[in-house]
Amino acid sequence: MVKLASVPLGEHEINGFTYSIYSEEFLNGPDLWALIKAKGAPPSETEAKQLMRSLLVAIKEVWSMRFIHRDIKPANVIKLADPDRPFVLIDLGIAFGLLETGLTLQGVPCTNRYLAPEMANPNFRASLDYRTDLYTIALTVFEYSAGQHPIARDSDDAIRTVTRALHDPPKPLKDLRPDFSTEFCWLIDQLLKKKPALRPANLDRLIAQTEI
Amino acid sequence: MKLYAQQGYGTGSGENDRISAGLAAGHIHGAIISPKDFAHDRAMTLLEQIEGDFPDADRLFDPHWYASILAYDPDSRMGKLISDDYTYFEARRRSQMESESQVRADLEACLAFQAQMPLTAAIAPGIVIRQRFNSAEAVIAKNFIRNARVAWDSVGDNRPLYATLAIDAEALQDRLALEEFLSEITILDTPPDGFYILVHNPTSGIPPELVDPRTLAGWMLLNHSLNLNGFEVINGYSDILSPFLVAAGGTAGATGWFNTQKVFSLDRFAPPSPGGRRPVYRYLSTRLLNSIRFDELQLLRDRFPEVLNGLVTDQFYDPENGSMPDGQLQEILQTWDAITSFAPAGSSPQLSDCRSWISRASSQYEQINLSPGMRLMGRSNGDHLESIASGLQLFSELAEIDF
Question: What's the predicted TM-score (pTM) here?
């Protein structure tokens, strides 16, 4: 996870509005969305596993405080040259605390292209847990590995994007990355199931499965 | 695939001990003891004997806690459960079990009792979720599941723990409610090692193979989802459905020698209904995915030898004797042998196998039905195949997989 920097978290009133203000560390690296768009050499399975592991460790930390990130996507992951910290997850702006009242305004708080199906449930607050983040981790790893989204199409409008997320089966990762192991592809495919109960949820086991 | 003896009345002893015979022949891999039918000292003797003679066999004890809600009825049939032996068992009203502290106390009492037994794992008590997943019983059942691990840890035993998950067949048909329920129990803070699943029917008189497709699909989904999340799943009273459930992700199935041990129902604890007769001996044909009467086997076996399983237990159905087995011991050994043969120990049936079993059975019934004078009637006919096929299709949709 991104770390806080020198400006501590605090509230400030500006023009009659109260703002929560803090600073984050500067991360000197590109985000994954830029790398996907640049269409460079696709990542190896080792790198894909490193990405997945980094994100799993991050959400494990977030979940330990009973929070869900809700907005994991390539644009919110920074790639660093540091082998001990190859990928960093940023932007907890719409993170959801199970024990708190929401701070986000109206609507479904996430990016449509990276919508976990259960987020479209009108009673989603009652049913959310970190498996929502597992789904978006799998979307991010898939898109980074394959260079394309498993479900969404660039030409779709918002309604079509959400409809696909709810109903269309994702492409199997093995179809686009036949060089990846069957086991890793199966894991990504399984985490992209529409029903949370079909996504393997043991975080420690998932992290162990992504060890290099 | 593992198959366990679902113990019940008439286990037998000595040469007629069904469980020991099944273990010795390798047709079963363990036993689930029924305290209703076995006094504690006999249960302990049997468990110790199994431990000594078959050390690799699994030894489990079904605490029958789901019957506690019937125990206030003076006409109920609690058998040995209501005795000085099984000190953990008490009659309970639903209102009492709405108290979480009562649930914890009952869990600890039951699990502390099992900790004193030579079991390979413990089964935590639970109650049946009747009709709907948003029922009061569902809340109580979830409390039992949620608190099982903490109770077992307080006993200080490190053997594996299975939580009882008993659900009405009808409740399994509510797809959305089932998915929500699964979502809850696959993310417990302190989970058990596995689940002991019981699918409740209004009566145990229903043949196990005549399952509603939605019930089968829901039952398979339970196995599939729980397995994905690292849980072991033991299916009680699963009989001929065992291979399907294990193909979906289960660890084991179980069945016994009476109908009350092939289909789970609380009616075996309820006041008895009049009538009933000794059932006719049957032969479980893996080709037909069904058990047929011994006299039907006699009629078919020369013209359609494929209905025979080609297993060692075929010898018990000697054509010279009209294909009638000597007794119930031979019948249950044949049943166990047949079910286990779907996937020998060390291997697991695959979901793709399920479709080929059904296809093969359908084809066989077609041939039989076309043959003059050979048509199988009643329970022995092929009506169950459409239900099972529909159940498989529905499961593939629920599980979001193609096979």
Answer: 0.93
